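REQUEST ID: PR-0412
SUBMITTED BY: lab tech R.K.
PRIORITY: routine
TASK: structure prediction, single protein chain
INPUT:
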Amino acid sequence: MSEPAPPEFRVCPVTGRTVIVAPARAARPHDDRGDAGPCPFCPGQEHETPPETYAIHDANGWRVRVVPNRYPAVRPDAPAFGYHELVVECPDHVERPTDLREDQLANVFRAYRDRLAHHFAHPRIEAVSIFKNVGVAAGASREHAHSQLVALPFVPPGFVARPGPCAVCPMPAGSDKLVARSANLAAVCPAAPRFANEVWIVPTAHEPRFEATDHDVELAQLVRRVLLAMDALLDRPAFNWMLVTAPRPVADFHWRLEIVPRRSAVAGFEWATGVFINDVPPDRAAARLRDKLPA
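STATUS: complete
OUTPUT:
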């Protein structure tokens, strides 16, 4: 059987959207929730992944591993240039971030920072997307806790800041949409959420680049509290999180971690228009999540 064609970028002449055509992605495995044999992300199965590009170790072995994605959407040797990595978040075979201790989750955010700095050192990389899918409804194909990183040679629309004053800076002050806060971070429901109970974690100071921060432990604590509240309110929903940090050409930006519960499907209207319909106002969502925060 011949190798699939390498990934390539295509730009729609009608909408201007850039699409990645990556035939190799069709071969990526799905574990069918536990019926696919040994997990390639568990200790002892390291030979089942490409060699690691980064790892955090302690006396007991690796705590976090970063490896190239075996089924990449972009490749450094392809027309769709870029880097696609998997962040294996822990050696334990668990699925949800709330199954991790705070120190384990802090290591994940440390790995994010280090890999962002690494990829932005490449002169062709303009933006880096880090995202996590939890649950089948959110697009997860493996149970073992992991995230993905895609480094791109262009800036996607979601990473472009609107001109004018920062729209994120006032968010932590909006008490009706505030879920929780810590010394340097706030969890807020955005004013126009795409999905019900969507939460953004934002720094209370104007910080453009996540990789230039040092909030790993604090972020782990706040994210874990918010996710436990979501679990209690929504019965452990599938969700995505997306780390949005400044692309290379942008100096004035406000990084954020978007956490999006997937309780409803994106349907025809959303696909046709790009406009989302949400049936839970953000102030009500924030109040419900505040009520479920662990002590």
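NOTES: The chain has a mean pLDDT of 93.
REVIEWED BY: pending
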